[in-house]
Amino acid sequence: MPDHDERETQILRAATAVIIRQGYDKTTMSDIADEAGVSRGTVYLYFKGKEELFEALLYWEWTQYSQIWLEAIESDPRGGTIGGFYRAIFRAVGSRPLMASIMRRDRRVLGNYLRKPDNQVAWMESGSTTVDLIKALQAVGAARQDLDPEVTAHLLETLSYGQLTIADFKSPDQLPPFPVVMEALADMMDRWLLPEDGGNSEAGKEVIRQVVAETKGRIEQMRLSNVQARDTKEVV
User: Fold this and answer.
1) Would you say 129 and 153 are in contact if contact means Cβ atoms under 8 Å apart?
2) How far apart are CA 7 and CA 1, in angstroms?
3) Which of 3, 39, 56, 139 minimizes the number of CB atoms within 10 Å of its CB?
4) CA geometry: angle at 165 spanning 161 and 170, to 5°?
5) For each successive 10 residues of the chain (236 residues), what is the average pLDDT?
């Protein structure tokens, strides 16, 4: 019999599949139980309701995504450049459909959860910004010193969010293969943003490791705060 972590992972994977297929609003705990092949009571042993399950799923999804992203950074000789940073993001997002929906705030998938004042999607997007990343990479010689961080960040976000949302405007059969676009976009970023000497990719990787560690700590703090808030509400 699976232990607690394996069973919880089984439920979270099932929830991912159901929510991507029919959206948060239409998904029920029974749907998730059926997808996971367990009883609804088993799902309630781990999660007290759909919102609690979904917030656990957001944390789990970010953890899976960040692991793929960081592994891509580490295995890429140019992983510490801005082009390498985005190449890894696109690779990770391409393998995690729910994370892609989170990044573009897909209302079909995320539904009314986005209206929640303290929703975790907004929380996940707060904190470190692309501007901070560019400044940090400039400081270690992994990005050109003459760049305006705010303007550069705006252009990078325009490119990256455009890649995430282009399928909303053009039919998929009109689009070049995603891996080809990913590599071309990352190469274009490096041609534009790297210093003439090629930049210090290893120092850039250390910056990115710190960004991942800080973001993970912030999201874990958010998760624990939500759990404590629910426990306090139940006691009252």
Assistant:
1) yes
2) 9
3) 3
4) 140
5) 74 97 96 96 94 92 90 92 90 89 89 86 68 93 94 90 81 84 89 92 93 82 72 62
